[in-house]
Amino acid sequence: xxxxxxxxxxxFLTGCEDVYILIHRNPDGDCIGxxxxxxxxxxxxxxxxxxxxxxxxxERFAFLLPxxxxxxxxxxxxxxxxxxxDEKLLGDLEECYAGKIQLCIDHHVSNxxxxxxxxxxxxxAAACEILYKLYRYMNICFTEQIAKCLFTGxxxxxxxxxxxxxxxxxxxxxxxxxxxxxxxxxxxxNRQMFDVKSPARIKAEMAMLxxxxxxxxxxxxxxxxxxxxxxxxxxHESDLEGLTxxxxxxxSVEVGITLREREPGVYKVSMRSAKDVNVSAICQQFGxxxxxxxAGCLIRGSREEVTEKLIRAVEKAL
Length: 318
Ligand SMILES: [Mn+2]
Description:
There is one protein chain. This protein is α/β, with parallel strands linked by helices. The chain has two domains: 193 residues, inorganic pyrophosphatase (n-terminal core), CATH 3.90.1640; 119 residues, Roll (Diaminopimelate Epimerase, Chain A, domain 1), CATH 3.10.310.30. The strands form two sheets. A six-stranded parallel beta sheet has the order 1-6-5-4-2-3, with helices on one face. Strands 7-8-9-10-12-11 form a six-stranded mixed beta sheet, sandwiched between helices. The protein starts with a strand and ends with a helix. It is built from twelve helices and twelve strands. Bound molecules: manganese (II) ion. Manganese (II) ion binds next to loops.
């Protein structure tokens, strides 16, 4: 493992060829924006590049994809990951690419340094914030597609510029994108990312909210996205993006926990911190990780067991 700087990353990207760009499973606006902006940049440098994800890219991100994605297949000479803290997060791609990643560009404090070269800035709000800086350093000519990708990534990971991880740079970089590409509908991107929900999702959300649980003097909330609620309302897990924000809405809350039931007895846990609790440290106790105020892990057991384990860990952290 070699922690590299912008100069070395520039040398790497200008020298590489035939690139596969890996993004994490359950893709979000940051990894999709990072992946497709990097593809566009590498193509503008005359290289072949494609983005790989274990899950399909949800339809609402279609506006970030290149207009011509048709390209004859090619074998990889270079493998890069973006916004992937841990090879485990590659999903089905892990088996094929683990141990072979030559460059990782990431902003997670929990990064496992699994790649040969790592460009990590744990103070950056988004992988797209690092890439914005890097592309400027490289004197890349931005396009409207690159601007949309980077804006979406920075907006996504800052919860629409609301979270504490929002830096002066996040505002400056997105402002520069807005100035250079005034025709992009930035407000519409934010609406698409944060406000729009399917009618089924709204119904499922009402069911989950009405069953929200309060623990530890109402400082901890739990929202259960059970298979049953999803089935009753015909929503898919991919339609539950952003659910975690709801767990932090009660005024008393310090830690909000959202549990998505993957299969009976297997829960994908998303933990959010309202103020000072480090939820990344809590999730690491269960083999997960993430950011200080937004982290996740996978946990198995009955609903009672899972509740007990999580609440005990939160109680210690409070
Ligand atoms: Mn990210």
